[in-house]
Give the backbone structure.
Amino acid sequence: MKQNNQVGSTKSVPMKANEISSDGSFKRQTNRFITPFGNNSNELPVEANRYRLLWTAACPWAHRTVIVRKILGLDNVISLGTASPLRPKTTQVDWEFSLDEGGVDPILGIQYMSEIYQKTDSEYKGRPTVPVMVDLKAQQVANNDYFRLTNYFETEWKPFHKENAPNLYPKDLCGEIDALNDVIFHDINNGVYKCGFALSQEVYEEAFDRLFARLDELEERLSTQRFLFGDYITDSDVRLYSTLVRFDVAYYTAFHTNRNLIKEFPNLGGYVRDLYQTPGFGDTTDFDAIKQHYHVSITIFVDKEDVKILPKGPDLSGWNAPHHRETLSNSKEKFLIDN
Amino acid sequence: MKQNNQVGSTKSVPMKANEISSDGSFKRQTNRFITPFGNNSNELPVEANRYRLLWTAACPWAHRTVIVRKILGLDNVISLGTASPLRPKTTQVDWEFSLDEGGVDPILGIQYMSEIYQKTDSEYKGRPTVPVMVDLKAQQVANNDYFRLTNYFETEWKPFHKENAPNLYPKDLCGEIDALNDVIFHDINNGVYKCGFALSQEVYEEAFDRLFARLDELEERLSTQRFLFGDYITDSDVRLYSTLVRFDVAYYTAFHTNRNLIKEFPNLGGYVRDLYQTPGFGDTTDFDAIKQHYHVSITIFVDKEDVKILPKGPDLSGWNAPHHRETLSNSKEKFLIDN
């Protein structure tokens, strides 16, 4: 994949090359805008109708904020701007509001995600990522902390939760949820990207093994309980969902995570369908957008064309398993022997 | 994928570009060496130890000849030369004997498949394909007719079949076998290539739909009988096997044939495992070679880098199916509601 010419743009666009370590592994950039929401003067004020959440339906990091926003009823107080799942032709790292009339976000009036980042900090050199909470008063990025944003929604934004909103982050479970979220982040959410963006076979295989070891562990955990922490959906389930729901349609093929499809796991397969069928999950899942992004418009490293990864899967263990086909036959022999 | 420089070769190497129609569809080249085996003076004489069959374990067209050769015991009278599944770095269409000591076929003394084609016809412009039967006496290509070669083995080569060799092509079924082979060829054997090599979304989707419509039909056919023609394995089963056994490890991902894995089909899945567990099938199937070829070293069209195909699969019909996960829960609610 050649880098496209930056038609219509004079800005230099940062490629992901600076997110690749010397061993060929992917190191996701850290977030630049991480001021927390809260009541202190140095925190972002929690106010109805002050912020606009920008996302694309393709992105798992953005998707989880949109799920939690909906489950908690914050869609009444935080508006939503939706960028196209297809990267703009001019860059490989930006997002574009081409789904909107006139090709601009109707509230912010911007065509590209990078514009709001540049307005906020003209020195900003990172990728213009989603999710991002934009302060409509300041017309600037307030927070793009994809890791903590759902937690802010669950805690600091409580005053604006709808009536009888569920508790996705119960106080007595916070520590355990945080610990599991960390594991889910490194081995699963970001784990699939480590597989897909690896620039060496060794680094890819290491990420592949960690990913499936963790999925096997969660498969076992979900054999005796409906959700990750028992009977009720928590923040951790949202985070796991956003990767699992993309797995079979995108990562399995595009990121070489092909030991097994999620639907081949009896428990994980049923679990992700259970969540999909829950309001807030399936109704915010756009398979077309996900497929378009990962298969047609994924950001590719400049020099990826020289790297060939051999997929470690699929699982071949079933080839010698019993098939019971002999019960369909009248003959004990499989071959016709002429005499 | 850029075309590699033809290091170490001064010959012009024909690319597949001439096998692409104006609508972006793949039209496989016709065979050049199609003189039949037989007893007439204008036919190729059937003689023990006169021919060497050249193949690579990656290639489905070659694989089927190797399966039939083994089932019929012709491995005693036709020797086998094995090229690497990886295309040589110097060209994208040749095959190389790099698995052999010294990098040359021990009998023919050639490094590249193209050498025997050039020795036979210095004007030969097609791809140097496998399978190919080489006449060791003339040191020339005798026959590269991948479509009919198994039939010659089954009929003309009968004098050299092992004792109690099975009949894969019974006279009373020849007409039906030929008719089904034709369907299997166009929609399945070559159908996966039509998907993988399509240069337009429309052409890809048409091939995808035909492929899975045919697989659905065969899934139904195999629900009441063990093999395609009942209780016994025939030539048609060999042809279907060579594509099915490559499907989940190669085509599903590399050729975008991802509506379903073959192991998701109850009957086709059991059927292909039944064949795999039959001498001649599984013991000639080299999954490593297949994976290496299709994922790392497949011949790519010169201009394929400009074409993005959106995979039509996977099948999303299961997302709203019952999951029965609620039986694991003590609560009727999925969410914890604080009061």
Remarks:
- Chain A touches chain B through 64 residues (CB under 8 Å).
- The beta strands of chain A are 51-56, 79-83, 132-135, 140-143.
- Residues 17-307 of chain A form a domain with the Glutaredoxin fold (CATH 3.40.30.10).
- The radius of gyration of chain A is 22 Å.
